[in-house]
User: Which sequence fits this backbone?
């Protein structure tokens, strides 16, 4: 039987779509149970695991949907991770996909030359390319990003996140998640 910590609940918006694909919108079993008692969510699927008190018993929710729709913000926060997600974890100079620990972000126009830390001036770079480009403008070093940086909409990041399924997906979640992975043929 899985430990309680291995029983998170997939959280869907009131339209039955995940609040987020990357990171996947998950709540701890405690938060899910609390939301059920506060009548803020509907249970769509459950684990076989049961929790109980002296007077109550319930199966842990594995998929829950919010009762009230939460409108996603139009633009995501400007974070290092979201820049990597926008660029699909791919260095914009050598075009190779790298694990997150090997990635940095690069100011296309260096800050020392008037560049700003904004969506429109920062791209994902591997350490090697970032060091090679250094404090130069793209035309000075002959290194131009494969795609010009832009401020993405939240929907773009959600779509990119679908290409990177997490290591663990409970079977009860599969009907609510749509990953860009090959489906089993039977």
Assistant:
């Amino acid at each position: 039987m899985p430990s309680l910590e291995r029983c998170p609940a997939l959280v869907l918006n009131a339209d039955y779509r995940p609040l987020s694909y990357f990171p996947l919108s998950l709540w701890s079993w405690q938060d899910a149970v609390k939301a059920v008692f506060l009548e803020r969510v509907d249970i769509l699927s459950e684990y076989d695991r049961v929790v109980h008190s002296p007077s109550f018993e319930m199966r842990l929710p594995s998929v829950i949907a919010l009762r009230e729709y939460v409108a996603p913000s139009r633009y995501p926060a400007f974070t290092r991770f979201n820049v990597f997600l926008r660029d699909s974890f791919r260095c914009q100079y050598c075009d190779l996909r790298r694990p997150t620990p090997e990635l940095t972000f690069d100011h296309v126009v260096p800050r020392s030359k008037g560049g700003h830390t904004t969506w429109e001036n920062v791209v994902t770079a591997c350490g090697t390319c970032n060091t090679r480009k250094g404090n130069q403008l793209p035309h000075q070093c002959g290194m131009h990003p494969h795609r010009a940086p832009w401020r993405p909409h939240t929907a773009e990041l959600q779509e990119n996140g679908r290409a990177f399924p997490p290591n663990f997906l409970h079977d009860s979640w599969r009907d609510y998640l749509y990953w860009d992975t090959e489906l089993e043929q039977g």
